[in-house]
Amino acid sequence: MIIKSKKLIPIITLFMILILPSVAIAGKHVVVIDPAHGGSDRGVKLSMSLYEKDVTLTIAKLVKENLSGVQDITLKLTRSDDTNVSPATRKKIAGEAGADLFVSIHVNAGFGLDAKGYEIYYTVADMPSAEKSNSGEILKDMNQTERLNSSVIFAQIIRENMEKIFPREGRGLRNAPVFVLQSMTTPGVLLETGFATNLENKKKLKDKEVEKAIANAISESIKKYFSTGGK
Ligand SMILES: [Zn+2]
């Protein structure tokens, strides 16, 4: 589940995110993987002992393992244990890492017991400015357009790979206000892997082999993104 917010991020926070120094190493692609929820924020329930926070962490750790040997990719997790990290802190981690790509992992729920499949949300641009009166504003818009394009390209790659695990269950690429993606300076997507409220999906998400397959899908998507022109 995700927090959808239409509220504008306070200007001061936005300012802080924009001026955060980029510490990316030249020639290295920095990817931040965000296992959603954690600690007391358990997310949706899959069983008495398994929650969304566990599934997202398992997948994120597998992605890290998969990409640990890839020379030009540095991978960072927003959490590597069962702790509660605020969405604002997750964004801050991505900013401070100088992330080139941000991937938030979730498990979906709701919309009735029949709703199943994966959803991919991509970065929404900030609210459009009423007047583009100075070059700073225009430049900011150009950066946002570039970021949005990159996010959509990555979302399309990840859709191709998720389709292999959940055939014909794609619920589309969605441009919706998602707090963790809003006002980011990094291209990013939020992946809803499947529905905990659908029996078929739940069974898959509890299966270690499927969790591995999802992690592989994310890892392969990241590699493809950077090898096909992603910056
Ligand atoms: Zn969630």
Write structural notes for this entry.
With 231 residues, the protein is of the alpha/beta class. The protein has one domain (11-227): Zn-dependent exopeptidases (Aminopeptidase, 3-Layer(aba) Sandwich), CATH 3.40.630. It is 40% helix and 19% strand. It contains six helices and eight strands, in the order αβββαβαββαββαα. The protein has helices at 11-19, 52-67, 87-97, 135-163, 199-205, 208-227; strands spanning 29-35, 45-47, 50-51, 73-77, 101-108, 118-122, 170-174, 188-195. A six-stranded mixed beta sheet has the order 4-1-5-8-6-7, with helices on both faces. It has a two-stranded antiparallel sheet with strand order 2-3. The relative contact order is 0.21. Residues 1-2, 36-37, 43, 52, 106 line the site of zinc ion.
Describe the protein's topology.
Elements (H helix, E strand, L loop, with lengths): L10 H9 L9 E7 L9 E3 L2 E2 H16 L5 E5 L9 H11 L3 E8 L9 E5 L12 H29 L6 E5 L13 E8 L3 H7 L2 H20 L4
Parallel strand pairs: 1-4, 1-5, 5-8, 6-7
Antiparallel strand pairs: 2-3, 6-8
